[in-house]
């Protein structure tokens, strides 16, 4: 992409600067690179700058940009909509025509929503469909994965395919995934496997073995979907009386999975079907029979940011592209994000932006630019929604602490740090706000290291200095 990492600089103000410099010279950072930017939250003045103008990979700190752009470009009260449409008419209990399930990006649809749609169809008199059942995901383009997604991530929940028509297994809203729970059976036999929601869309190849204790057997339990298919292979061992293991596995082709669930709901509720399953766009002249709105964006931000949901980031990216440029694509969404950044006084030409979630190793952002953005956001009328979505250090409730709930507990940083975490192989980041008497805005990024645990310790040490000494 032609983005170069610049020479590091050190700028210091405040009585904690020498302590920060000492940590940033620590032997644990040998061979790695760190960037730290600290500003006054009241004035925006740069108080500490160490490699702050160096482009670094932000990992999930990219979600700070995506979330802020979505609030500005879509609005905090924005809703996703899913529609049930027809190109036919209802006569004497029979829908003569096709039935369309039209997705518009909602990542919060659940299995029970399809049952509700079908119940509503029955309530308006539909008992039989003389036509096909059609799934429509054309609101977004057909590029389901970002350009830099690696194969080994495609089966993971954080690598789920992005579709305008998708479904989540529970209220974490990991759209496009299925929960696979494995528990011990009889010793020497295959363990028990339960899918949620229950479905025949995936095939299970159960090669695992139940053992008497966790020490026996050849290795740990592995649950993985085979590339390019919907066969989930389970291998390794599990203890007979040990805790069950649950993995969220991304399915191949989420819209096809939705079609299976919706078709099954129609059959379960005894609506007679004479046609077949199809995948096509909803005709312009089709009538909307039913619709469902998602929660507003201000509420969706909680699972998105607190739990660092990659799928939500990419859906929001594509939605911004669709709404503002008429194209539900990664490329269009990134153009909208760049427009937003320019409006906030940042120069996206000095960044490499490849996706909305930060899963790409090719994203490059300067810590000083990210801290500048975080400062400017405080004047937005939607800032409280943004701020409330950030993980809170040491807060034990999952919907509050999020990815920071186990960090910095019983320290000066507990309930004081409101920040987004980020993690990839060789990358860790933490950026956000310090809510003290003299509040701060900060961005910390570290790249090219080998020991993630040690880098998180360094991040935490930096936070303790900033919260313990203040200005």
From TrEMBL:
EC id: 3.4.16.4
By its UniProt entry, which Gene3D superfamilies does this protein fall under? D-Ala-D-Ala carboxypeptidase C, peptidase S13 (3.50.80.20), DD-peptidase/beta-lactamase superfamily (3.40.710.10)
- Pfam families associated with the record: Peptidase_S13 (PF02113)
Superkingdom of origin: Bacteria
- Please name the top-level EC class of this enzyme: hydrolase
Q: Its Gene Ontology biological processes?
A: peptidoglycan metabolic process; proteolysis
Q: Tell me yes or no: is Protease among this UniProt entry's keywords.
A: yes
InterPro entries linked to this entry: Beta-lactam/transpept-like, Peptidase_S13
GO-annotated molecular function = serine-type D-Ala-D-Ala carboxypeptidase activity
Q: Which UniProt keywords apply?
A: Carboxypeptidase, Hydrolase, Protease
Q: Does the keyword Protease apply?
A: yes
Concerning its family, UniProt says: Belongs to the peptidase S13 family.
Q: In its UniProt entry, what is this protein called? A: D-alanyl-D-alanine carboxypeptidase/D-alanyl-D-alanine-endopeptidase
The lineage is:
Bacteria, Bacillati, Bacillota, Bacilli, Bacillales
């Amino acid at each position: 992409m032609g983005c170069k990492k610049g020479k590091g600089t050190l700028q210091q103000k405040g009585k904690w600067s020498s302590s920060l410099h000492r940590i940033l010279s620590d032997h644990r950072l040998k061979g790695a690179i760190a960037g730290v930017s600290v500003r006054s939250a009241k004035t925006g003045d740069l108080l500490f700058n160490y490699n702050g103008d160096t482009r670094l990979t932000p990992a999930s700190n990219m979600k700070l940009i995506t979330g802020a752009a979505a609030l500005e470009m879509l609005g905090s009260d924005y809703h996703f909509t899913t529609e049930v449409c027809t190109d036919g008419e209802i006569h004497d209990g029979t829908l003569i025509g096709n039935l369309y399930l039209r997705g518009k990006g909602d990542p919060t649809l659940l299995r029970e929503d399809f049952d509700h749609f079908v119940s509503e169809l029955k309530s308006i008199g539909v008992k039989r469909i003389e036509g096909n059942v059609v799934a429509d995901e054309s609101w977004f383009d057909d590029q389901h994965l970002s350009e830099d997604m690696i194969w080994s991530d495609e089966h993971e929940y954080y690598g789920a395919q992005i579709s305008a028509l998708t479904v989540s297994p529970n209220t974490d809203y990991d759209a496009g995934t299925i929960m696979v729970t494995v528990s011990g059976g009889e010793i020497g036999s295959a363990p028990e496997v339960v899918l949620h929601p229950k479905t025949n869309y995936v095939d299970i190849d159960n090669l695992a073995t139940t053992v008497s204790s966790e020490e026996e057997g050849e290795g740990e339990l592995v649950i993985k979907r085979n590339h390019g298919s919907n066969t989930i292979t389970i291998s390794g061992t599990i203890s007979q009386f040990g805790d069950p293991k649950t993995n969220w596995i991304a399915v191949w082709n989420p819209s096809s999975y939705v079609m299976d669930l919706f078709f099954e709901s129609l059959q379960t509720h005894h609506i007679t079907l004479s046609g077949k399953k199809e995948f096509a766009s909803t005709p312009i002249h089709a009538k909307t029979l039913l619709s469902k709105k998602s929660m507003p964006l201000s509420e969706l931000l909680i699972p998105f940011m607190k739990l660092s949901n990659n799928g939500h980031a990419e859906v929001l990216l594509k939605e911004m592209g669709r709404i503002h440029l008429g194209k539900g694509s990664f490329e269009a969404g990134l153009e909208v994000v760049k427009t937003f950044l320019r409006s906030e006084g940042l120069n996206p030409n000095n960044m490499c932006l490849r996706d909305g979630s930060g899963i790409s190793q090719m994203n490059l952002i300067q810590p000083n630019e990210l801290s500048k953005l975080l400062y400017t956001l405080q004047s937005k009328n939607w800032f409280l929604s943004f701020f409330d979505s950030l993980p809170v250090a040491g807060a034990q409730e999952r919907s509050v602490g999020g990815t920071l709930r186990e960090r910095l507990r019983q320290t000066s940083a507990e309930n004081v740090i409101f920040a987004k975490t980020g993690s990839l192989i060789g990358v860790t980041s933490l950026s956000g706000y310090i809510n003290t008497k003299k509040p701060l805005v900060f961005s910390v990024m570290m790249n090219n290291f080998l020991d993630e645990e040690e880098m998180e310790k360094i991040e935490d040490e930096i936070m303790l200095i900033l919260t313990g000494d203040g200005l």
